[in-house]
Amino acid sequence: MKQLMTIALGVVIVAFFTAALYILELPPFNKGGVWGPVATQQETEQGVSANIPDLLAEDQKVGRSKSYDEYMSRGKAQEDNGYHTMAVAEYQAASKLAPDRLDPIIEIGRIYLRENDYINAKLTFQRALELSPDNTDVKVYLVRSLLGDRKITEAQKLIDSITLPNQQSRYYQGIIAAYFDDEQKATNLLNESMVLGSNPDTISKAQNFLNAYAEYHFNQGGSPVHLKTLLGRSFNQVGEYQMAIPLLFDVLKEKKDYRDAWVLLGFAYLNIEKYQDAVEALEQAKKLDSQKPETLFYLGLGYFGLNDLKQAATDLELAKQYGYEPVIQINQKLAEIYLQLKKYPESADNFEQVLALNDTDINYFIKPMWIYIERLHEPEKAYTLAQKAQKAHPKEAMSYNLLGWASIGTNHLSEAEDYLKKAMIIDPHLDAVYLNYGLLQEKRGMLTEAVANYRKAYAMGNGNSISSSAADHYNQLIKTLDQTNPTLKANLLSGSNP
Length: 498
Fold this sequence. Notes:
The structure is a single chain. With 498 residues, the chain is an all-alpha fold. Helices cover 69% and strands 1% of the residues. It has 27 helices and 2 strands. A two-stranded antiparallel ribbon has the order 1-2. The protein is globular. The N terminus is likely disordered.
């Protein structure tokens, strides 16, 4: 898949949107996951995971010295860019400089929470609580970590120790009361949380549980099993999957043929990446109703998580057949699955269906263009897609880069050069343009110039997929040149910069 990686960074697949489950909507299935191994308690108490570099020590080795504020600022910048490992390293360095400061420890714990690494989050916030035993915010963070680790009784004891409640503490007290089947206490606390603060996310989550109780009582004569199922749904919807699972197990012990409880259980397991458990639960739901589109969609995701691509495609196609919405979610996943299965026509078709519904990101055009050029040998279709990309994104350098790439495929080389020059004018630092310029020059027999552009794309890519593909083209061309010109001595490129 060389040239697919050459033209731009990989396609950013839109996150899964909301999927309805019999009354309210569930949040998207989010394949999260920790970004490193679980740290030992000693390592986490120092604010560092097992695979995080000691930046403070590294700075000292080379004679640099940064302040606490500099480390915190760098950590925030890394965090904002999604580089969580490096962010934690920066915060850890700040914590070493100021071991009594809470801020870096809290920031590290918050990252662990976002990565669903609840063990390390718990250890981190426990250290923070040692520094500030009465800090309500730290207690709430620790409660969230305990709930994620399914230590619900321990979380209840901690949250009840808060003497000066705020919106967050009352909310968590409320959902814990709901978990332990204390409706009156739960509704009182949740209502109180809604007036203690103005955080819209907390208010929305609290209202979700209140709506579940209201729905239960609206259907007079509803069974306790039904209430637990509604609460399990709410726990799923607010992202407390570990609290949903035990409730749903209780439901299914009493009512094994409760289809929606099986679906909710499977959904919860999907979100904590226990794919085998998810598939087993969803297969039970499928036995009870083989045509429910949500069941089939989640089942497809479960099999995808198990790397059973053929079965994943089968269930996703059935979900589409039975009317799952939004269909773009299915098209996105099927496009990727068929690409991995090397079913290129099916993959390209699904990519095009995605583009018909959403062409807001120009990178969405790259994979189907690669399929048409490199696998199906239909560059004219790639050119048509490039024209659509240019129409949707007329001011972007990548638009002209894609037109240039497709024009090389259709052998319109002068036109390709014009497009690539326009791309360079708009963005002279777009690495993919130089890679495609190398392709163009190689096709024209201008091998020395091609080598120079491949090398430039390689350096500009700085180790990304552009660099990798540029290195492949460069190395292959160098070997050819070496055969025809023994005096040419050139180093082959690797995965790092020259």
